[in-house]
Amino acid sequence: MLQDRIVRRVDLGFIKLTLTGLQGIYMSKRENYESKMQAQLDELKTEIAGLGKKAEHAEINLELEYYTLIDELQLTLEATEQKFELLLQANEDKWEEFRSELEHSWDSLRELIKVITAP
Hints:
The chain has helices spanning about 1-55, 60-90, 90-115. By secondary structure, it is mainly α. The N and C termini lie far apart (about 80 Å).
């Protein structure tokens, strides 16, 4: 009887350790994703600043169009940053949903960059 109790406690301890380990892996993936996205957003901000400098040297007729695209890009970046903030604050249940929305917004940003930087 005492031996059965010891075995049960060991089994339950293993399950608890396993669940804790899985939670650690999940949080690690989440933290890695959030860190990677923050770095990409910071890189994009630098790229947008460079585009503004490039617009200053563009021909007069292209300058207005260029600045319009940069403004649109800046607005999309701000919306993406807001989604990123929601992702950072999200509980585990909503995190995947916010991640999906952030990925969609990120794809829009990359497409706008392609339009602006196309030859």
